[in-house]
Amino acid sequence: VGGYATYAARQASIPQLQYRPGTPDGIVESCRQAAIAAARTHAAELGAELLRVDAASAGEMRRVGGIQSAPVEVGIVYARPSGQEIRQGVIECRVSRQGAVLAGLPVAAR
Known about the structure:
- The structure is a single chain.
- By secondary structure, this protein is an alpha+beta fold.
- The protein contains three helices and four strands; from the N terminus they run H-H-E-E-E-E-H.
- It has helices spanning 2-10, 25-46, 106-109; strands at 49-57, 62-64, 67-80, 83-95.
- Strands 1, 2, 3 and 4 form a four-stranded antiparallel β-sheet that branches.
- Strand 3 and strand 4 (83-95) form a beta hairpin.
- It starts with a helix and ends with a helix.
């Protein structure tokens, strides 16, 4: 039993994301990749380990000026000396017409 508890304690918590249709899966994945990059940088700054990054559509995309804004809910799990830390929220991911993320997402990781 002790070995199982130790194993379970090391498993990353799973953020509970609420899927809301509207942002295509490919766009969600592009935004997730940008969030991973930002979360890695943030983890290094804190001396933490990045364990998991999940993402889901958080609604309909909209056009803002000449770019598209995609609402994406992101859940990030860090391992810190004090235990696991979960950061979760909806970000506005700005994407080109081709689906490329236009800017980094530093806010998503913090």
